[in-house]
């Protein structure tokens, strides 16, 4: 296999990567060949191994790099690009199709479960706050005629509103930890074969 054949095969294997990352990887390999010189071309190809394996390693490293980037630096489009790269890395990993299907189904189930928990916490909080507001109005209504009942209803209403606000905060805060947990799970899944 010649350098040109190797580079064409590598480019074909990397065709689904974003253009900037693909060009950066191809540029690195071209420089590697240039540094070695034409006389060591066969030796370099043997050292690098199969182009498809090299492409799988590039995709895997790029996915890990994207997962480790600080969150504020990521744009929405870059987040979708990261998801695409992670999916490519999973497909490029040497695992069977049933295992890949299991991981995808498990991932979807986890996302749905997490979304359900978030929605349940948030909606419970909204309901508690709404009931608290209605109870505050009722408490003020009862104060002139039944002072003790009115004060009791006001106290209960403030408690309900407080619980509602706590549930809303818990729902919002859980998103951060759930995202970190899912990113960590994906990172462990991608690096499980690298430990030697």
Structure write-up:
The chain crosses the membrane at residues 83-111, 117-143, 150-179. Keywords: Membrane, Transmembrane, Transmembrane helix. With 196 residues, the chain is mainly α. It folds into two domains: 1-94, no CATH class; 96-196. Helices cover 83% and strands 0% of the residues. It has helices spanning 3-13, 19-36, 41-48, 51-68, 76-92, 97-142, 147-191. α4 (51-68) packs antiparallel against α5 (76-92), α4 packs antiparallel against α7 (147-191) and α6 (97-142) packs antiparallel against α7 (147-191). The two termini are 30 Å apart. The mean pLDDT is 80.
Task: Name some characteristics of this structure.
mainly alpha, 83% helix
Radius of gyration: 28 Å
Q: What structural category arises from helix and sheet content?
A: mainly alpha
Number of distinct helices: 7
Oligomer: single chain
> Could you say which overall geometry the principal axes of the C-alpha atoms support?
rod-shaped
| Average pLDDT for all residues | 80
The counted number of beta strands is: 0
Biggest β-sheet description:
none
Helix-strand pattern, N to C? HHHHHHH
Distance between the termini: 30 Å
Q: What level of helicity do the residues show?
A: over 70%
Low-confidence stretches: none
Give the domain tally.
2
Beta-strand percent range:
under 5%
């Amino acid at each position: 296999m010649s350098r040109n054949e190797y580079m064409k095969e590598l480019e074909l294997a990397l065709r689904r990567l974003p253009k900037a990352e693909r060009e950066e990887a191809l540029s690195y390999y071209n420089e590697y060949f240039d540094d070695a010189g034409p006389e060591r071309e066969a030796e370099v190809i043997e050292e690098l191994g199969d182009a498809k394996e090299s492409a799988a390693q590039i995709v895997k490293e790029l996915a890990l790099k994207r997962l480790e980037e600080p969150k504020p630096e990521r744009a929405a489009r870059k987040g979708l690009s990261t998801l695409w790269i992670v999916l490519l890395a999973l497909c490029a990993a040497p695992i069977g199709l049933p295992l890949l299907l299991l991981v995808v189904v498990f991932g979807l189930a986890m996302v749905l479960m997490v979304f359900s928990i978030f929605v349940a916490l948030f909606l419970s909080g909204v309901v508690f706050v709404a009931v608290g507001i209605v109870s505050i109005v009722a408490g003020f209504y009862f104060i002139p005629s039944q002072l003790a009942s009115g004060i009791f209803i006001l106290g209960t209403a403030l408690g309900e509103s407080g619980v509602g606000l706590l549930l809303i905060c818990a729902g919002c805060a859980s998103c951060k930890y759930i995202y970190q947990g899912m990113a960590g799970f994906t990172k462990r899944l991608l690096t499980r074969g690298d430990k030697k």
